[in-house]
Amino acid sequence: MHLHDRCQVALLRELSMQGGGRLVLKGGMAMRVSVGSLRLTKDIDFDADESLSLQSLKNTLETGLQRAAINCRLKGTVIDFTKEGRGTTRARLVGNTQSGESLRFEVEVSRRPSLFKAGIQSVTVAPPASYAMAPFEANVYRNEVLCVMKIAAALSANREAERDLYDLYDLSLLGTDPGEVLSLQDEDTLRQWAVDPLGKLSKLTFKGAAQNLLPYIPPLARTAIDEDRWVFMTLTIAEKIEQWCDEALAHKHSPSDERLPLPPGAGG
């Protein structure tokens, strides 16, 4: 996973330099650069400013992937687009290391209207010394926005990904308060999320985590998560989601002159 991560960081660097601020990092890599998550990510995801044309986006992705492959000294590199559309564009990089190890990952960019355009921050990414890359600036969603996105993912009827619970737990440990950003959601959604988050989160089992999550975190952190710890994390986040949604509903119903304005960049 070391080379996999290095190649993704190299891609992030290239896209941050080329994109002119029009690409915003989200998902697992955003958790790493903003929150300090130990979890490595399989793929890398962005939102794009709607002003970025599809052709410009494709050119940016192709150039970024080519340069990332060169940075990591890959050979036999193949770059193709597995999805092209007005809403989502996905590109795939496949290559081999000098020792013959296969490397493969995708980068996905969504070009859809977002509730969270104000919730963007610029962070300094300092790659590990072994990556031989200078620090660089990248646009990423603020923690409270990442938290709302993760709540939506964790409670989605069509998704069961143990990493969502792990990421929400990391965000909760930092004292992240997504209440005001959550209040941008419609009331029906908030009430649905608040009803029984534990019922949905309970489907994210320790067995699933052992297969789909633990291999992506360092060995020392991995040994700290056993079945009892996983149950504790599940109960903690279920309680947090109820609390956050209740706060968002209360915020939604407060008189407009009493509602706190979103801090700069808190949307997104």
Structure commentary:
The protein has about 270 residues and is an alpha+beta fold. Helices cover about 45% and strands about 20% of the residues. It contains eleven helices and seven strands. It has helices at about 1-20, 25-35, 55-70, 145-155, 160-175, 180, 185-195, 195-200, 205-210, 220-225, 225-255, and strands at about 25, 45-50, 75-85, 90-95, 100-110, 120-125, 135-140. The strands form two sheets. A five-stranded mixed β-sheet has the order 1-2-5-4-3. Strands 6-7 form a two-stranded antiparallel ribbon. α2 (about 25-35) packs antiparallel against α4 (about 145-155) and α5 (about 160-175) crosses α11 (about 225-255). The protein is globular, with a radius of gyration of 19 Å. The chain starts with a helix and ends in a 15-residue tail after the last helix. The model is unreliable at about 255-268 (pLDDT under 50).
Question: What is the element layout, followed by pairings?
Answer:
Layout: H1 2-18, E1 23-26, H2 27-35, E2 44-48, H3 54-71, E3 75-83, E4 88-96, E5 102-110, E6 120-125, E7 136-141, H4 143-154, H5 162-173, H6 179-182, H7 187-195, H8 197-201, H9 206-212, H10 219-223, H11 227-253
Parallel strand pairs: 2-5
Antiparallel strand pairs: 1-2, 3-4, 4-5, 6-7
Order of helices and strands: HEHEHEEEEEHHHHHHHH
Could you say which structural class the secondary elements and strand pairing correspond to?
Answer: alpha+beta
Kindly state the number of beta strands.
Answer: 7
Main sheet overview: 5 strands, mixed
**Residue ranges: pLDDT <50 for 5 or more in a row?**
257-268
Radius of gyration: 19 Å
Percent strand equals 15-25%
Distance between the termini: 30 Å
Shape: globular
Share in helix: 40-55%
Give, in spatial order, the strands making up the sheet with the most strands.
Answer: 1-2-5-4-3
Oligomer: single chain
Average pLDDT reading = 90
Number of helices: 11
